[in-house]
Amino acid sequence: MSEISVTKKDIIWGYLAQFFLVASGLITLPLVLNILSAEEIGMNYLMLTIGSLVSLLDFGFAPQFGRNITYIFSGAQKLQKEGISTEKGDLNYKLLATMISAAKLIYKVMAVVVLVIMLTLGTVYIYKATMGFTSVKYALLIWVIYSISAFFAIYYTYYTSLLMGKGLIMESKKAMLASRITCILLTFIFLFMGWGLLGIAVANLLAPFVNRYFSYRYFFVPELRNKIENYYVNRKEKWEIFSIIWYNAKKLGMVFIGNYAISKLSLFLAGLYLSLQEIASYGLMIQLVTVLTVSSVTLFTISEPYLISLRIEDKRSELLKRFSFTMNVYYCLFIIGSLFLIILAPLLLEFIGSNTKLPSTYILTLYCFVIFLENNNCNFSTFILLDNKIPFMWPSLCTGVFIIMGDFLILQYTSFALGGLIMVQLICQSAYVNWRWIYVVCRDFKISFSSFLALGLKETFNKIRLSLFMLKY
Of the candidates 171, 267, 460, 464, which lies 20 to 30 Å from 352 by C-alpha distance? Predict the structure, then answer.
């Protein structure tokens, strides 16, 4: 049994890695906006959207693998399709070896399927969006390279699940950091060499190999590698693990599809109705707000293994305190970041001479508000998922379906464009998912939402006082 906790180093490395994760796009953004044409920028955002669409074929396996790895390192002797086993003991190396073997096989198959889809259906879409590969130079070659990079990125995903599941948060972030820095440096080099969007695609192709190299070294230390190599895992055992993981992964996958429709599909549909310049503006807004989202939820994300450990040990009071603290940090960071984004981002884009502008202040403000609520309900639903139960599959999927229908009607029959797409998202989410999971968690812990917020503030002030005390003495 391995003790899982979150240290200050984990938090520091978590924020540092997340910064560079989004900075791989942000640091190079001024150069990209200055060098690439609006058509190239639009194609870049479309590629990212398609890449995230086919990545839905992960179908919830990554978080499910991560959580079950945490269960194993927390002493679980068997895994269940739903709920958590109360049988505990020493680390079960046979179970761990079986889980790793199953993950390798599943992600290998998944990566191949993704590559085939991107090179067939994805190519048809890019052909239409770029007017027969003519509006962007080397459009077909760029798309093929990007598709191959998606193959390797998906195939190596299970390494992150292994590290996070074991509680090696700092090590996971170091591997991610090395990969992102490599991507940033190569992007700068290739852009200055005049490769344009092709250079960005090549940089993204090479980055996953760096992440895989360091992740392997951090997880498969000699002692662990020697122990799990002693176990042979047959096909039947892999299938048993797959059936356990698949039980909730398929539900989580449907949730991801709903979330994709909520957050990403509007850009995909916009590519069929709006110009590449409008798509570039919309995509830039999504990218900047995504940076804000990733930064503000980092503490919650890196705390998940620790929260799972507290849940297994049934430490409900400590679990609620930790969760309320991470949510309080999210609220503060997102609100402050939104104000900076709305006020300063347009000025900075004008200062660097960007060829692409953000949408109006009204649309930008509305979008920040919508994403604030969306992140809030996502964090609460993820907290519910710690119990290895998924009650939110159908609500998420239905919300996504209504958003798709609304987006189509807005684009096909009105001139509301971006503002209409965002309003559809707000109305559909507010009908149920934006409040339901907050209610479920508060009901489970017999606490009102206002008391939950107060608890988060109290925990924040306590941690600040403790930090000041330690600095003083």
Answer: 267
The per-residue pLDDT for 258 is 67
CA 98 – CA 16 distance, rounded (Å)? 33
Structure confidence at residue 306 (pLDDT): 83
* CB contact at 8 A, 231 and 97: yes
Q: Does residue 41 contact residue 355 with C-beta atoms inside 8 Å?
A: yes
Asked if residue 382 lies in contact with residue 255, where contact means CB atoms within 8 angstroms, the answer is: no
Q: Which residue shows structure tokens 């390494």?
A: 159
Longest CA pairwise span in the chain (Å): 68
Which residues of the chain fall below pLDDT 50? 471-473
Contacts of 288 (CB under 8 A, 6+ apart): 26, 341, 345, 358
What are 124's two structure tokens? 């048809």
Question: What's the chain's length in residues?
Answer: 473
CA angle 401, 49, 303 (to 5 degrees): 85
Q: In 29-92, which ranges are continuous DSSP H helix? A: 29-35, 38-54, 61-73
CA distance 274 to 112: 32
pTM for this one?
0.69
- Residues 301 and 40: their CA atoms lie apart, in Å, by 33
Q: Six-digit token pair at 133?
A: 């590969």
Distance CA 218, CA 206 (A): 20
pLDDT tens column, 292-307: 998 898 888 888 878 8
pLDDT at 14: 67
Beta strands in 334-375 (DSSP E): none
Could you tell me which of 72, 138, 59 has the C-alpha nearest to residue 100? Answer: 72
